[in-house]
Write a structure and sequence with these properties.
Two copies of one chain form a homodimer. Chain A is α+β, with helices and mostly antiparallel strands. In chain A, 30% of the residues lie in helices and 26% in strands. Chain A has two domains: 96 residues, Beta Barrel (OB fold (Dihydrolipoamide Acetyltransferase, E2P)); 293 residues, Bira Bifunctional Protein, Domain 2 (BirA Bifunctional Protein, domain 2, 2-Layer Sandwich). Chain A has twelve helices and 16 strands. In chain A, strands 6-10-11-16-15-14-13-12 form an eight-stranded mixed beta sheet. The longest helix of chain A is centred in the N-terminal third of the chain and has 23 residues. At the A-B interface, β1, α3, α4, β6 and β7 of A face β1, α3, α4, β6 and β7 of B.
């Protein structure tokens, strides 16, 4: 007998079907036993009556999270829809219950609850169980929608999807924060970003995007950092200025916001998530932002840079004055940007930006230097050695157009849309300084 | 002035436009200079006449692969479409030529040629230049189409896209062939496959897929192996048997074949690529395949296993007798499969398969053991220690449905569709034992 999905059952009132899934909960009412059965499409109430002897015996035996197959008759639910929305307006009168898998462990909490209400360590230590909770599980529906939406948006703009190596020969970009690996008879490193490869991609395809793992050996202990993330990268050639790059990123974020709002309605309600997308994302110079912070919030900066608190406040300001959850900060000083950043005409700032979303930086980007000599000189100016970048410099000997791009952190987007306390909650199996299991 | 893409120019005859791209070739005919200009959408012939003095001077100066902007009048081409298809039936009469970037290196070959005709090392050593050759570049159009098609197919079948960690705490599955990394104050490893994590995903989402990097420290020197690849993984719960898994994979390969045939028509012609997709992919037991090899090709096997030559021959047979470029080999012996493979009833074979495509294994899959005790016992039977797999075993204490899945090598699919000699040609920047640059 073919399995029926729970979401299809309401169309099958009066029919005998087989459902399969996990026991979300079981309630023994003396004579009647109620099982809430869960599959990937929903939850349904199963009623087991003593007359169906073998089913009844099995129902007495099952516990939460057992995997079962249940055959029976789909009926309209007496009293109609329950207060508990998920269970819906039908029920199954069980005729046969087969236990597929039993639970062999004590369950530390009840995953059927609406709110787990456990701390972050418990969430991560019991990941396999936790992910069965509907509200937690739904985070990854939003995450999957984000991945789809990003690809769709980039393809619509004629970006070519590429995959670049994560094992690299040198720890570049200054050298710090790379994980070292043993690669046969030599050392190699894990890529911190596909930066050099996506720039090479511009030379071949003009416009490229990549969805891939990046690895950062930063000993951070914050709610914003982990050591392995999925970056949504893009790079585009033949730009007139780095505004073109911001235009594309704005298009992408507008698309992501609208796809998630449309296709994850229920999840947004569950998390009270909303995304304020204005007509036009505000774009303000970093120096201007620092002035606003001082004037509006009495927050002074010693350097021309912005800290996490500043990012949070400038988003407050953008929301208040522009009705926007997004704000581009532009023209970061040369001193806080990588050597390949295109300097502005003044020589002190760069044609770069960060995109701040709901108080957190989600993307960093800008125009890159595309002339060989200028790039080589900048490497020297940064106290680095051109010979350490020979493969990279090679790209610029071959004729490169003006270009720029961004790296966009996928997990932070989901974290902020759903107001999760930590970015780790938006990752199936996060990796931090202390955690490389499960 | 806005840039016009070359593919849009034929609709703009009589208009003054700005094109931008790379100099594909330049021919100085004494009085007239012809430049073939290339952008991501095509190639167009630019005519430069001495009357336009500054343009003419710049045209004398440009060389292959310079990046230029050219303004001028779009005209119908005298004599109509050239033999050289790419250039098309229009030309641009240059009024202004601006050099954006010069080439600062000697070019070792002419990338404008239809066939580069260089060996694999040259292809890989000069990757940034080589990728500008149309025929090579087109490999990655097919590759991008594959990525899109795989995601579309999986989502249509309600698989949830997930991303799992590539840094893992233990070198499992036997322990060999893992790259070791230094992770803060301890050792860790690079994931060889998302196997354990996607099985965990079944517990949470029933059906999952992942497109991600996997790393294999295998010292191979073949045309089929590299040390870092992109795997197209999937895992599904509530299967009746491993036929369900093959059904899904067959659906996916059918979709990929049809998407690539439809959307990469020109590229398939260029590579004389075709894909024979039968009504139903043949599925034969490995032992049967070995009998066929002996009977039809006189090839004897000492063990119940198939080598690369056998895979090539069995595809020849499948093509001849079933009109199929695909063939599933099923029921591999326990001895050649990982410990988590579901044994067949006979205890000697497993509920597993390989999918062979045009002579090469592109996918491996099957049903997995889903009961805790059976899995623990199998780990012991394989001479491994259950305590080394405690995180993995944890999954099976929580109630798991019957499930199975596959790992599908993305690069080999493209290699075989386009009949590339080596899988490395299907990878932008391949990583092998000797090569971790560029």
């Amino acid at each position: 007998m073919e399995r029926t999905l729970i979401s299809d059952a309401p169309r099958m009132i009066g029919q005998y079907v087989k459902l399969a899934g996990w026991v979300n909960s079981r309630r023994d009412h003396g004579k009647l036993i109620f099982i809430d059965l869960r599959d990937r499409t929903g939850v349904v109430q199963v009623v087991v009556i003593p007359d169906k002897e073998s089913a009844y015996q099995n129902a007495k035996d099952v516990r939460s999270e057992f995997v079962v197959e249940i055959e029976g008759l789909v009926k309209e639910r007496p009293g109609g829809q329950s207060k508990e929305d998920r269970v819906g307006k039908i029920e199954l009168e069980a005729a046969k219950i087969t236990v597929i898998s039993r639970v062999e462990a004590e369950l530390p909490f009840d995953v059927a609850k609406n709110e787990l209400d456990v701390n972050l360590n418990t969430l991560l230590d019991n990941r396999n169980l936790v992910l069965r909770n509907k509200k937690i599980n739904d985070i990854f529906k939003v995450y999957a929608e984000l991945l789809k939406s990003y690809g769709d948006a980039m393809r619509e703009r004629q970006f070519r999807e590429i995959k670049t190596p994560k094992i690299v020969s040198a720890a570049t970009e200054g050298g710090a924060n790379f994980f070292k690996i043993r690669y046969f008879d030599r050392d190699a490193y894990l890529a911190q970003s596909p930066q050099f490869y996506k720039q090479a991609g511009v030379g071949a395809f003009e416009r490229v995007f990549e969805v891939g793992s990046v690895f950062r050996a930063e000993p951070h202990f914050t709610t914003r950092h982990v050591n392995e993330i999925i970056m949504l990268d893009a790079e585009m050639g033949f730009i007139d200025s780095f505004s073109d790059v911001m235009d594309q990123l704005e298009f992408v974020m507008r698309r992501i916001s609208s796809d998630i709002s449309q296709n994850c309605k229920e999840e947004l309600v569950e998390y009270s998530g909303e995304i304020l997308v204005p007509e036009k994302f505000p774009r303000i110079r970093l120096t201007e932002a620092l002035e606003i912070l001082e004037k509006e919030y009495g927050k002074k900066s010693e350097d021309i840079d912005i800290d996490p608190e500043g990012e949070r406040l400038i988003c407050e300001w953008a929301k208040k004055t522009h009705g926007s959850d997004f704000v581009f900060l532009t023209h970061y000083p040369v001193s806080v940007r990588p050597f390949y950043s295109m300097p502005s005409e003044d020589g002190q700032f760069t044609e770069t930006f960060d995109l701040i979303f709901k108080g957190v930086e989600i993307a960093s980007g800008g125009q890159r230097i595309h002339h060989y000599e200028q790039l080589k000189n900048n490497i020297i100016k940064f106290g680095l050695k051109p010979e350490d970048f020979s493969d990279y410099l090679e790209i610029f000997k071959l004729g490169m157009p003006a270009h720029g791009g961004w790296g966009l952190g996928s997990e932070r987007i989901v974290q902020k849309i759903l107001s999760l306390d930590s970015v780790k909650e938006a990752i199936l199996f996060p990796r931090d300084v202390k955690r490389i299991t499960p």
